Amino acid sequence: GKAPPAARVRGMAGQAVAEVAPVPATVAALKAVLEAVTGCPKACQRLLASGGAAQLLGDDDALDPEGAELLMVVDESPMATWDVRSNPASDILLAEDGGHVKCPALRTDYVNVLTEEPLRRGVHYFEFVMHHIGDEQWCGLVQDCSQAGNRTSGRRLEAWAYYAGRMGSRSESLVDGHGALHAARTAVKGFQTLRRKGDVIGMLVDLGAGAVAFDLNGVLQGACPIPQGVPLWVFTHLDTRDDHVELRKPPMQDAPPQTLAALSGALLDVSTGLRLCGPVHRAPPLGSSSDGSMSDGS
């Protein structure tokens, strides 16, 4: 018999993506099906009506129940666009061109800013361009999107992040002062401390392998495990009114060779790090793996 009407979706190269029958009532409903089939988040799907005009369809647009031919474009920009609008501190944040974020009206000690869309699968490379760091800075991944805003300080974040260190400090403490890998609320390993302006943190994330690697100005700093099977948001932490961070998402193959290789090598053991929060305790010298903790400063 005759095949039932369907929504046929193809990629830009002409390859078949999915055939959905019966035809969903709206574009939003079709996107939900495509997310289940392809793994591509709804927020990253752009559907165009197939034909001469190739018109971009809105989520509320109705689909012809007698059949539809569509093109699907994957747009990963929401994974690298700061979500200022839904941030609890949105009234004091300033976003420019999606990737730039500042906080010139900062009235609290800090504010955490997350991306619009989390990472769910695949391999992704990001660059944090540090245009200005006033005091301290964290850049990396968080699992809990409720940490956006000013309720969770840097050392209490459930995060996997490059801690930039404290500007102007000569401290060798990996908890408070010197650059380090801060992962799962522990200071794991010393990383290079950043300058106030101009450094670029690279972050390569492999959701399938459950690993993240960080580099600074193209030089590998280290890699560690991350949770698997859960969404992870890219985040940054603004600490002063002059802070200015730009987030970029270059192609994965643009990551430095050492950073790419690090994900398949031995990962740092985050269980051996220093606790970031707890009773005041003098941290051991840089590079030590002795147990210890320090008070939460930021």
Automatic annotation (TrEMBL):
Domain of life: Eukaryota
Domain B30.2/SPRY: 59-254
InterPro entries: B30.2/SPRY (IPR001870), B30.2/SPRY_sf (IPR043136), ConA-like_dom_sf (IPR013320)
Name used for this protein in its record: B30.2/SPRY domain-containing protein
Taxonomic source organism: Zooxanthella nutricula
